[in-house]
Structure formats: structure tokens, C-alpha cells
């Protein structure tokens, strides 16, 4: 099966999925919302683990493309994402 391997952590829960290469950021968000049964996504921040082992905010297609480029270049080709409650939920909407 083709696509990017993704692992998403949310609290103590983790999911693994394979996403098609053609997916956009909104497609990824919709799948995460569905899998974790989330009603209001703008209360959360989505971050990816970059090649410096730092969590980087993921907010748009450009960020998602950079995430794929960075995470696909290492030895471990699984993209690691973290979903957490946003400290500023009213300032930004995913």
C-alpha cells in the first residue's frame, strides 16, 4: 500500500495510519478528527517531530509539505504527530 506512514499521539492514545501521497492538510485533519472522535478541532494544536527532535506546529498545506519533506528524509519514515490542547484556542483555528 502506497502512502506516508503516520503515528498520532493524543494524551495516552496513539493511532497509526497510512495516508495517501495526494492528501492535503485538511484531509489529514479530517482523519485525525474522525479517529479520535473530536468535535472542535480549533481547540487543539497539531505538531510534528522534526529532524532536530523538536515539535513544530502544523497549521497549513505548506507546513504539511515541509513535514513530509523533513520526516521522509530520515532513517525512520514514520511521520510522528502530536495532538494537544492549545494554550490559545481562540487565537487560531485549525
Give a written overview of the molecule.
The chain is of the alpha+beta class and 94 residues long. It has one domain: Phosphatidylinositol 3-kinase Catalytic Subunit, Chain A, domain 1 (Ubiquitin-like (UB roll)). Helix content is 24%, strand content 33%. A five-stranded mixed beta sheet has the order 2-1-5-3-4, covered by helices on one side. A hairpin with a 5-residue loop joins strand 3 (44-49) and strand 4. It is globular, with a radius of gyration of 13 Å. The chain starts with a strand and ends in a 9-residue tail after the last strand.
Mean pLDDT: 88
Number of helices: 2
The number of distinct β-strands equals: 5
CATH architecture: Roll
Strand content: 25-35%
Structural class: alpha+beta
Sum this structure up briefly:
The chain is an alpha+beta fold and 94 residues long. 24% of the residues lie in helices and 33% in strands.
Structure keywords:
globular; 94 residues; Ubiquitin-like (UB roll); 24% helix; alpha+beta; 5-stranded mixed sheet; single chain
Topology:
Layout: E1 4-10, E2 13-19, H1 25-36, E3 44-49, E4 55-57, H2 61-71, E5 78-85
